Amino acid sequence: QVQLVETGGGLVQGGGSLRLSCALSGRTFINYAMGWFRRAPEKEREFVASISRSGDSTDYADSVKGRFTISRDNSKNTVYLQMNSLKPEDTAVYYCAATAYASYRDYVGPGGRYVYWGQGTLVTVSS
Are 50 and 71 a contacting pair, CB within 8 Å? Predict the structure, then answer.
């Protein structure tokens, strides 16, 4: 059974930092490009960041560039999202997702075919 489990969400003051983690089980992690998405209250889900299977290529939404960093540890089957300089508008449920429809060195953008999704972790940024 495939599982993606996100951890690390919580309440943080504006300007603060959080690191989200997402562990994949039930599949061979290195075969999957990974992405982070988020859904703010009363808004549609949006792309945040993605990373290639190799970890060499990344992509970010303009709204988080320079503040968020996506990374992965293939030995731990885990992808991370380091979030710095958090703003109230970053408040959302954050989801990680996985896709096997990717070459080894290419990230998969928001239009990609992500087939596995986690249950989400809530990030709340106070002003």
Answer: no
Query: DSSP state, 102?
Result: S
Q: How many CB atoms lie within 10 A of CB 61?
A: 17
The pLDDT of residue 123 is above 90: yes
The pLDDT value recorded for residue 33 is 97
Closest residue by Cα to residue 119 from 95, 92, 97, 103: 95
Q: Write the CB contacts of 92 (distance below 8 Å, at least 6 apart in sequence).
A: 38, 39, 40, 41, 43, 122, 123
Indicate if the pLDDT at residue 110 is higher than 90: no
**Whole-angstrom distance, CA of residue 13 vs CA of residue 28:** 36
